[in-house]
Amino acid sequence: MNVDKEIIRSSSESRGVFIPAERAILNGKLTLPKEAVGLVVLIQGDDHNRPHAANDAVAKACHRYRLATLTVDLPLFAEGHSPVAVLSEKYIEHIAHWLQ
Q1: What is this structure's pTM?
Q2: In this structure, are strands 24-33 and 38-45 parallel, antiparallel, or unpaired?
Q3: Relative to the CA of 1, which of 8, 53, 81, 90 has its CA 20 to 30 Å away?
Q4: Which SS3 state, helix, strand or coil, does residue 40 take?
Q5: In this model, does residue 82 exceed pLDDT 60?
Q6: Which ranges of 23-66 does DSSP label H, i.e. alpha helix?
């Protein structure tokens, strides 16, 4: 399918979102193409020093096929704190609840 990127850019609406989760507020970006047919949630670490080129590429591909994206930054944790995997699962529960 050959899709004009300019049409996609002009037909999508993006906005920052804040998702309450336990003792944290998760930052995210919700992008809604016109006539979206579904939603893909992309999770990334909250490392502002690193570009997230892979998630950006996936999001752009989703938008071409009228899939909305919610990209959420999960906080990074210092050593000695609760395991990231366990906390990430809890955050994902909050994200799912927020989407309802």
Answers
A1: 0.72
A2: unpaired
A3: 53
A4: strand
A5: no
A6: 53-64
